[in-house]
Amino acid sequence: MSQYTQQDKTLALTGIYQAAQLVYQLASSGEADEKALKASIDSLFINNPTNTLNVFGDDVDNLQTGVETLLAQMNGNVSVQERNIEVTRYALSLMILAKKLRQGGDGLQKISNVLETAESQREHFGDMHENVIATIARAYSENVSIMTPRIMVNGHHQHLNNQRIANKIRALLLAGIRSALLWYQVGGSRWGLIWSRKKYLQNAKVLHRPQASPNNDKVTSLFNDEQDPSDKS
């Protein structure tokens, strides 16, 4: 069995929280951090990563939205009333859905087949073209929306009824499931999340870059002794 570190688990968990936070941003304002959005979408096409951070572009700066969201949601000094319940609900639902996909059926293979089409579109149209996002959204709609718990996204109707925004939301939910699959793969669990909350917070603080810049050190060196994670999503 492959051995992974707490840092691996934290990186994967921040991927889940990043997707959840971006879904919330899009649903409530129609906009989301473009760098974080691209990193989350790109993660769907990293099938043979060399380490956990490789899934997110080998740069912790790509995960700052997720890091900051995780710190805000799990910090014991923040009152329950101040936490974003919607983001927490999205994150937990993504974990549940990912676990169900892992447990059987051909859902992951069907998703993979659609993502192959999206990957071909990326080569022709560009990574974030609306056609690519629409195809990723279709992979979610056809294979995940039919599962329970069905994620009900709350927000402003004008944004939720905008097809382009709705497609981005569905694509991000699929990216969140991809991060949840990675999280389980590197040893994450919902019980472990409860018992190891302080460890997650400590590692998230290490990953935090309040003023991200090109000169900041990456955390790739933390993975020198780790084996390659793989993902079948």
Automatic annotation (TrEMBL):
Residues 210-233 are annotated as: Disordered. Residues 212-224 have a biased composition (Polar residues). It is found in: Cytoplasm; Cell membrane. Its main location: cytoplasm. It comes from the Bacteria. Keywords: Cell membrane, Cytoplasm, Membrane. It holds the Pfam family DUF489. Belongs to the HflD family. This is High frequency lysogenization protein HflD homolog. It comes from Thiomicrorhabdus marina.
